[in-house]
């Protein structure tokens, strides 16, 4: 049968005009049906509507020339290649092919007229084209009257083959239009058939720049339809989830009220709003799927704790999963401190716990004696059984793969889906929330608890490192503590570790009057915990660290953060690291040490982090600099990037697409189905977050 594609379609069967071997190659381009060819749109266009005399061809620019072949031979030095000389009335050009077929050599017989399309450059024997596109022609043969499309392709599938297959599909496939004409008219969009024909076969008077920049009305129509399909798929997934069963957990206000009355602080307005939204979701008999997003330090953990207690006071279990041991342990300690006075025990599951302790906790969870659990991905391993799991909380959810998030969900009772609460300290820009996260309900913590001091940010070049060391000395001798974060070195964890060790030794020598600690990912869990405990207790004044401290570390006395090679970090990471200070009442400072020369992107990132402290503004700039793919962690999130639409350039289309998706699903489900079939066939699952 051949290999199967994720949606269950087998490419090896082929379709009219396409045999099994070609079908296999087309599958690499995600083309499995004639319908898929309609939306296999050009990458760019080439202008073959005019000829350029050889003498007028400009270096570095594509051109089409027509001339007579005056010589053609296979040379062996410096390597085997096919070399032809072509002449027109204005001059002569050399054409070279380093990889060629015998058929090309035949087409270049002396005296024959050919057209060559390619970039002209200076060569050893005069102007030349390397690997130009070649077409034998009759003298005086008419030129095309429109731009020539160039398609994304793969080995073994030439442009001519794709053009032929696409033209056949345009003649064969029904190009019906499920989008109401009134909507198209209001948004100034052409019909579907008109749009795809205009993109595959641009009119002679089409604006080349508008086609190239994807600003042509035909492109706008395709982008709108793509956004609409994404909305339809995600909202349909959302509606399907609401049809599933989940434990109803009405607010009984016993444990939750007990926690609120013994906290040393009051909830902010934003926290109260989020707690109410989550509480209402938990009371429903269908599974909650909510994203709780809030800036660094906005108080997500207490909101999660209240949600977990609402499950517990109904006699059900709740689990909180965090991506790193440090963050998971921080959550465990907070929950333990808050809940122990209420007589509630919290299970702590991590890979580093002793086997006997771990097995004892697992047995109590399995028996339902323990209702709350906190852990790393150890929570989703097979031996962990939580038969009454009704709420799964996932912190820093973007750092887990889809399978890991699903594995936690599957821990519940058969036929009952646990409610899911995902938390993120990386605020999600509105356009991203409306598209890639359209199948979630979102709660936002957009205010910081009172008493949090603003953090000042300073940019310092690495030539002034001694001044920074002096600043650390002064802060620590004044009774404060400092973090010194070592650079992110993606190529080598070992190299990053060595840098951290070297920095630790340098600071220990430069600051003999202070106690300096070191923490990194290679330390055993108990060593990490001991170092963090010593820092939290004030026994260490300076903590040298790799990015393991990025999230979850909370030491109110630490008021100085130094980040080396800040230009190597992403904006979200810089903001997270900066958020480790400013947690007490003292004025806090974050010093970003950078090395010259700075790339344009690094300069843009440092400018944003220097000027902004609002996580939502930073996230918006981050989306602008990085694009949505990196932002949502597309490789692991299961969210495909939009192929054609841009969240920034086409943001005016998102709201109309969202509104139309809601209307179609409610009133015209068959039209919605037709659209989804056209775009994703049987692979709708790929569109879900």
Automatic annotation (TrEMBL):
It catalyses: Couples ATP hydrolysis with the unwinding of duplex DNA by translocating in the 3'-5' direction; ATP + H2O = ADP + phosphate + H(+). Coiled coil: none annotated. InterPro entries: ATP-dep_DNA_helicase_RecG, DEAD/DEAH_box_helicase_dom, Helicase_ATP-bd, Helicase_C-like, NA-bd_OB-fold, P-loop_NTPase, RecG/Mfd, RecG_dom3_C. Pfam families: DEAD, Helicase_C, RecG_dom3_C, RecG_wedge. The keyword Nucleus does not apply. GO terms for biological process: DNA recombination; DNA repair. This is ATP-dependent DNA helicase RecG. Its EC number is 5.6.2.4. Keywords: ATP-binding, DNA damage, DNA recombination, DNA repair, DNA-binding, Helicase, Hydrolase, Isomerase, Nucleotide-binding. It is an enzyme of class 5 (isomerase). Residues 281-445 form the Helicase ATP-binding domain. Belongs to the helicase family. RecG subfamily. Gene3D superfamilies: Nucleic acid-binding proteins, P-loop containing nucleotide triphosphate hydrolases. It comes from the Bacteria. SMART domains: DEXDc, HELICc. Plays a critical role in recombination and DNA repair. Helps process Holliday junction intermediates to mature products by catalyzing branch migration. Has replication fork regression activity, unwinds stalled or blocked replication forks to make a HJ that can be resolved. Has a DNA unwinding activity characteristic of a DNA helicase with 3'-5' polarity. Residues 478-629 form the Helicase C-terminal domain. The lineage of its organism: Bacteria, Pseudomonadati, Pseudomonadota, Betaproteobacteria, Rhodocyclales. One of its GO terms (molecular function) is DNA binding.
């Amino acid at each position: 049968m051949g290999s199967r594609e994720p949606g269950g379609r087998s490419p090896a069967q082929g379709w009219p005009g396409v045999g099994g071997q070609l079908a296999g190659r087309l599958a690499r381009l995600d083309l499995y049906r004639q319908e898929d060819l309609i939306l296999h749109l050009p990458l760019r266009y080439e202008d073959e509507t005019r000829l350029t005399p050889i003498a007028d061809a400009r270096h570095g620019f594509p051109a089409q020339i027509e001339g007579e072949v005056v010589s053609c031979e296979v040379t062996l030095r410096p390597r085997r290649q096919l070399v032809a000389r072509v002449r027109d009335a204005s001059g002569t050009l050399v054409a070279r092919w380093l990889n060629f077929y015998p058929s090309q050599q035949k087409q270049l017989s002396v005296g024959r007229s050919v057209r060559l399309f390619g970039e002209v450059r200076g060569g050893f024997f005069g102007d030349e084209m390397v690997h130009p596109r070649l077409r034998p022609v009759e003298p005086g043969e008419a030129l095309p009257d429109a731009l020539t499309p160039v398609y994304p392709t793969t080995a073994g599938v030439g442009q001519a083959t794709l053009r032929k297959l696409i033209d056949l599909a345009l003649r064969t496939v029904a190009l019906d239009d499920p989008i109401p004409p009134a909507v198209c008219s209001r948004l100034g969009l052409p019909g579907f058939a008109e749009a795809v024909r205009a993109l595959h076969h641009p009119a002679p008077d089409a604006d080349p720049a508008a086609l190239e920049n994807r600003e042509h009305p035909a492109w706008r129509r395709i982008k709108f339809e793509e956004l609409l399909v994404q909305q339809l798929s995600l909202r349909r997934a959302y509606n399907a989830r609401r049809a599933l069963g989940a434990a109803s957990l009405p607010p009984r206000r016993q444990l939750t009220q007990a926690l609120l009355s013994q906290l040393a602080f009051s909830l902010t307005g934003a926290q109260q709003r989020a707690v109410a939204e989550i509480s209402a979701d938990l009371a429903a008999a269908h599974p909650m799927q909510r994203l709780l997003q809030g800036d660094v330090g906005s108080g997500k953990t207490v909101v999660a704790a209240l949600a977990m207690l609402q499950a517990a006071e109904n006699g059900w279990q709740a689990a909180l999963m965090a991506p790193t041991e440090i963050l998971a342990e921080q959550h465990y300690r907070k929950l333990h401190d808050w809940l122990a006075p209420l007589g509630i025990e919290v299970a702590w599951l991590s890979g580093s716990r002793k086997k006997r302790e771990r097995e004892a906790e697992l047995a109590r969870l399995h028996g339902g004696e323990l209702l709350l659990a906190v852990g790393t991905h150890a929570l989703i391993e097979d031996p962990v059984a939580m038969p009454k799991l009704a709420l799964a909380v996932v912190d820093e959810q973007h750092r887990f793969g889809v399978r890991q998030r699903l594995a936690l969900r599957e821990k519940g009772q058969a036929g009952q889906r646990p409610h899911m609460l995902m938390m993120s300290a990386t605020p999600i820009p509105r356009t991203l929330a409306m598209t890639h996260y359209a199948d979630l309900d979102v709660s936002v913590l957009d205010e910081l608890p009172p008493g949090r001091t603003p953090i000042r940010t300073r940019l310092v070049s690495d030539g002034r490192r001694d001044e920074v060391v002096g600043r650390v000395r002064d802060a620590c001798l004044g009774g404060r503590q400092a973090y010194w974060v070592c650079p992110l070195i993606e190529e080598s964890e070992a190299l990053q570790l060595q840098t951290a060790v070297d920095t630790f030794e340098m600071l220990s020598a430069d600051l003999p009057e202070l106690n300096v600690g070191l923490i990194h990912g290679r330390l055993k869990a108990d060593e990490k915990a001991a170092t963090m405990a010593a820092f939290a207790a004030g026994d260490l004044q300076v903590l040298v660290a790799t990015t393991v401290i990025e999230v979850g570390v909370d030491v109110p006395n630490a008021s100085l953060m130094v980040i080396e090679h800040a230009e190597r970090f992403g904006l979200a990471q810089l903001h997270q690291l900066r958020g480790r200070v400013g947690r007490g009442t003292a004025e806090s400072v974050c010093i970003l040490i950078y090395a010259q020369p700075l790339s344009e992107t690094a300069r843009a990132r440092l400018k944003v982090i220097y000027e902004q402290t609002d996580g939502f503004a930073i996230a918006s700039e981050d989306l602008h600099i990085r694009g949505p793919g990196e932002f949502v962690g597309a490789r692991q999130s299961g969210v495909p990037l939009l192929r054609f639409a841009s969240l920034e350039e086409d943001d005016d289309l998102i709201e109309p697409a969202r509104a139309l998706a809601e209307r179609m699903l409610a009133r015209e489900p068959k039209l919605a189905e037709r659209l989804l079939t056209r775009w994703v066939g049987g692979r709708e699952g790929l569109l879900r977050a």
